[in-house]
Amino acid sequence: MKIERLMFILIALLSKKFIKAKEIAEIYQVSTRTIYRDIDTLSLAGIPIYSQQGTDGGFYIDENYKLNSLLFSEAEKKLIYDFSRSLSKSVKRPQLKELQHKMSTFMTSNEKPSPYFFDFTQWSTKDQKLNLLDKAIDQCNIVHFDYTDYKGHDTRRFVEPINLVCKGNVWYLYGFCLLREDTRLFRMSRIQNLEVIDDKFISENHLFMSQDLLDDFFADLVASVEMVHVCLSFKKEVKSRVFDVFSEEVILDEENYLVVSREFAKEPWLIELILSFGSGVKVISPAWLREEIRNEAQKIIDQYDIM
After folding, report:
1. Extents of the domains making up the chain
2. Which residue windows are transmembrane per the record (predicted)?
3. How far from 290 is each of 77, 250, 262, 272, 293, CA to CA, in Å?
4. Predicted TM-score (pTM) of this structure
5. Which tens digit of pLDDT belongs to each residue from 235-293?
């Protein structure tokens, strides 16, 4: 706890003109005498800390001290603060709140606005799941839940949770599935009836998620499915959604329509994706996919056949 106070005091001194022992004592719920000892510790370490008497006084640091420039640039401070503030709204982890609080000491009233704004909260909030899983990961508790895979199959899973992963604004649980006896990524929106149980696991037995591991995971997923080249024609009325769904590189903007030509996984979700555009899309190729769409559309019509 002392090291956290020392870091907080140092960062506060570097970013503010004065700090008051009483204010820091209230934050950490210790005595002002304890804060005085902390400041003495920093002074003995070579940090040039001075005091000024009076109602507007307090402790301050020599303005020529250069440690501040070794920590973060102004843009980096703002970026870390905005990021931690947004993430702490979704993940109720004390360390995130602490980071937000520490970084707030850097902020000034005339701070230049950041070109980035982060919002990790979701319209359909999954905060409760995130917080339960975060606690289970921290305490090495096994979790169990009902899971629906992308083919619509339901299974009961017992999982050793390793990481929470946010990719493409979608939250996943990365963990070791006891049913499959292997690591898996579980999309948070498909997890139902989540419970944390008392059974423990050894976290050191697992590799934590990394960028390379995540890239390999999705590369293996793509390699395991058959790919097919599809050409789609879209009406201009659905242009905004076309740009929401597809990357700009695969969109050809013609005078009266848009063309998307790219590789897709030959999976049921492809038909669902195309049908989600309603009458705003037409399959140019391949021929078998046009027939699949026609058949699926007929099934929809049949559901409303009152004869």
Report:
1. 2-71, 127-223, 227-303
2. none
3. 53, 20, 16, 13, 5
4. 0.58
5. 999 999 999 999 899 999 998 999 999 999 888 889 999 999 999 999 999 999 999 99
